[in-house]
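Dear support,

I submitted the protein below through the web form. The confirmation email said the job was done, but the results page showed an empty box. After a refresh the structure appeared. I'm attaching both so you can tell me whether what I see now is the final result or a partial one.
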Amino acid sequence: MPIELVILGWGGVLLLVQIFLAAHLKTKQYGTDWNLGPRDEEMPPLNPVAARAARAQANLAETFPIAVAALAGVAIAGRTSDVTAIGACLWLAMRVVYVPIYLAGIKGLRTLVFLISIVGLALVVWPLLAA
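What the results page shows now:
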């Protein structure tokens, strides 16, 4: 199996982890009744760390379809290579690193890590576009 598909699977695991992390932090702030209920009522803003967790999760959810298209695409098209494997690993590594950096609120570094993850995806997408 191409490493790009393995990376895609781990990317899915990362997305699940981020979903549960954000939910845990929201529940910690708002309480179990909020989590179990219909969540109809207005709630106060999330504390900074819980809000960052929710934004980090949303960021991965927004970019994950691109990763799916790229990683599955090169595998299906038979266009995997050392470069696409490096790109896939770079994407996943930076997405993992992104979470604690964002939660810590490290200004600038979060953006740099995100951009490096996009470079990783570009290394995977390029063989699909250069046909």
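Response: this is the final, complete result; the empty box was a page-load delay. The mean pLDDT is 96.
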